[in-house]
Amino acid sequence: MQRLTMLVSPEGQWLLPESEEFFQLLNDPAPDYDAVAFAVKNLGCIKFDVVEKSIIELELHPRIVELSALLAAQQAIVQSNVSLFRLKFFDGAWQSEISSSPEHIVGRLSELCTPEFSPPATDRFLVEPRDMSTLFCDDDNVLRPLAQKWRVAFAQFDPSVVGLAVTQNLLPRLMIAGIRPPQGEPTWRFIGNGHRWIGNDYQLRGVGESVQNMPDKDYGAWATEYYKSVATSHLPRYDVVTGTIQFEDEAGRPRRSYRYERLMLPWKTPSGEVLVTMCSRPMGNVAPKSSGASTPPLSMNAAISE
């Protein structure tokens, strides 16, 4: 049986098991043990076997696989002409699955490699997750082109991402945070000028600052956890968000209620920093909770978002 075995390193490089580069990764020039199994279970490599040019077998320890390795394996699957896949993964014990769909295997890899995320508990913000597949099928949703770009680019960020935001009139609604692995704090890299609720000068002075240091500190801390989750899971989020925020508009009037669609996408960069783009679409007015006396609804700022 003809079998070609390769490994994807944590950095997303393809290695042959007997190559000098592989032994350098092991830091062992003459291993007397199953070096491939060790690299998979302990170093975060993905074993990639092509059998008779008709079957792809993947073996991995999902909880230690890095983004670069995951994306390299997913790209190879999408570009292959193979119609049968066997997925072997370690979850306390070795599990095995078989599929004839490359799309299913790509999605399954993302699910397996996603760290568990518990949204921050708060009464101020309600997050309703949406199915990303509905966004891809909605021709009228202004957020769809950005989601498509992320998918076809295999999450690789380049200047064309911003160019697309410009041509689709999304740039004012865009925010970009950078997170350096493994557990860096999200830092603003770009804040679109459509986010007037955050303050007229924050679009400039906020760049380079930590997300959690936003004028509304509770909101900043809440948003930070979502940026971290998207960066570490390497998976997008598509939500509807309803909540309140403490700020004043240009006339000094408090505006607190908002509801919007939110699309968060993780992008890899040559420097290793993960960029998370957040683009939003307002959905209408929200009436605040009354404390007793009748209070007229606070209309939502036309440009409010995260």
Characterise this structure.
The chain has two domains: 3-112, no CATH class; 125-282, PAS domain (Beta-Lactamase), CATH 3.30.450. Helices cover 27% and strands 25% of the residues. The chain has helices at 20-26, 35-43, 67-79, 102-112, 132-136, 144-152, 159-167, 202-205, 217-233, and strands spanning 3-8, 14-15, 46-51, 55-60, 84-90, 94-99, 125-129, 174-179, 187-191, 237-244, 257-268, 274-282. The model is unreliable at 287-306 (pLDDT under 50).
Compact overview of the structure:
Helix content is 27%, strand content 25%.
Major sheet summary line:
6 strands, mixed
Approximate strand percentage: 25-35%
Q: How many structural domains in the coordinates?
A: 2
The level 1 CATH classification of the largest domain is Alpha Beta
Task: Tell me, rounded to a whole number, the average pLDDT.
Answer: 84
Radius of gyration using CA atoms only: 22 Å
- The number of strands is 12
**End-to-end Cα distance:** 55 Å
Task: Give the key terms.
single chain; 306 residues; alpha+beta; Beta-Lactamase; 2 domains; 6-stranded mixed β-sheet; 12 strands; elongated; disordered C terminus
